[in-house]
Amino acid sequence: MLVVMSRLVVPTWLHPSPIACQILLGTCWILQTATRPYDRAEFWRYNLLMTIARLIKRVGAGAESGYRVLTGNVGLMVRTAPGGMDARVYDPLACLILQGTKTTSFGDRTATVRAGDMVLVSHALPVVARVTEASPEAPYIALVVPIDIAELRSVRDQLGDEAFETGETDAYAASPASDAMLDTFDRYLRLADDPTQARVLEPLIRRELHLRFLTADNGTTLRDLLERNSYARNISRALGALRNDFRTRLEVAQLAQSVGMSASSFHRHFRTITSTTPLQYQKDLRLTEARKLLIAGDHSVSSVAFEVGYESPSQFSREYSRKFGTPPSGDVAGLS
After folding, report:
1. What b/e string do you get for 251-288 counting C-beta neighbours within 10 Å, with b at 16 or more?
2. Which of 39, 152, 245, 302 has its CA 20 to 30 A from that of 215?
3. Rounded CA gap, 60 and 193, in Å?
4. Is the Cβ–Cβ distance between 120 and 232 less than 8 Å?
5. Domains and their CATH numbers in the chain
6. SS3 128
7. Residues in a beta bridge with 130
8. Intra-chain end-to-end CA distance of the chain, in Å
9. Which range among 11-20, 83-92, 125-134, 321-330 shows the weakest confidence by mean pLDDT?
């Protein structure tokens, strides 16, 4: 079996035979102990892929693209081909890319992540994402874990006065996953092998995962989010208010005042964290909800426009086309 270290390829990843697993794991061990330079993170990613393959085979899931829960609150996203625009609102989450490439657009920013990258999302963020590198032989594979802010705060409180680097960056931060992060993910997934022990160990390893998120190189905004009266925390409160009431007319000055910020400071920090303005953020919420309604069917374009807060269906159609690259009527025709 030819193993190319620059690209994780597992042709039989969904239904590996025991022999295939042994060959791959043996190959990883050889790579681990080899004297020539190698990427240790590659070894941990192979371990995770083999753990995932075993879990999927046991629960009987097929090889189709989609999302499924593996164990605990860890989900698996698989795509066997590029494309497939995904418009949704990300809640705080961690996403570990094991194979393939994905681009995510939010506000005026586009980020590309690849195998070995860990994404931490600290705030509610409307995004449009596309898998750009995937095939049946080498599918896009990612693990997704929702971030529990209460758990994160509990970990921070337990650490006490331990010094952390804080700083305000945007709500979407990606960097290469550390060996410790990959190892913790692997041990969390392996809990599915022993449900009895998992009852004791699952909350402990889940807490360890949150420690890894909190202390990661790209966890600065998460850390800032936990600080009392920080800008990150105030903006998070504002985003919650926007999500709860995105259909009504937005009064930015009033929203800023409700979280204890001046209008100018609110605009500046809002853009830093979300890469967009409050008004555009509200539009993105509306358009994301509109696309969900159109895909669900049984809705006309005009009824959807009014449902998400637009007063003019023609304005809705223009902004929808600008965001998604196709008019809402086209989506209805293509998805009905």
Report:
1. ebeebbeebebeeeebbebbbbbbbbebebbbbbbbbb
2. 39
3. 15
4. no
5. 66-223 (2.60.120.280), 228-336 (1.10.10.60)
6. strand
7. 103
8. 44
9. 11-20
Residue with tokens 């190189």: 217
State how far the Cα of 156 lies from the Cα of 147, in Å rounded to an integer: 14
Beta strand pairing status for 66-71 and 74-79?
antiparallel
User: How confident is the model at residue 34, as a pLDDT?
Assistant: 41
Contact 323, 128 (CB under 8 A): yes
pLDDT tens column, 272-298: 999 999 999 999 999 999 999 998 887
Tokens, residue 242: 């926007």
d(CA 238, CA 233): 9
**Type of residue at 137:** E
CB distance 10 to 49 below 8 Å: yes
DSSP strand pairing (109-114 vs 101-106): antiparallel
Cβ of 304: how many Cβ atoms within 10 Å? 23
What are the residue ranges of helices labelled H in 101-194? 149-159, 179-190
**In this structure, are residues 190 and 207 in contact, taking their beta carbons and an 8 Å threshold?**
no
Q: Give me 86's structure tokens.
A: 């995904």
Which residues have CB under 8 Å from 284's CB, separation 6+? 106, 107, 126, 276, 323
If residue 143 lies in a helix (H) or strand (E), which one and from where to where?
Answer: strand 140-146
Give the whole-angstrom CA distance, residue 213 versus residue 211.
5
Q: What is the DSSP letter of 192?
A: G
Supply 299's token pair: 């809705």
DSSP character for 17?
Answer: -
Closest alpha carbon to 174 in 128, 116, 258, 105: 116
Choice among 168-177, 211-220, 267-276 with the minimum mean pLDDT: 168-177
CA proximity to 292, closest of 335, 250, 241, 249: 335
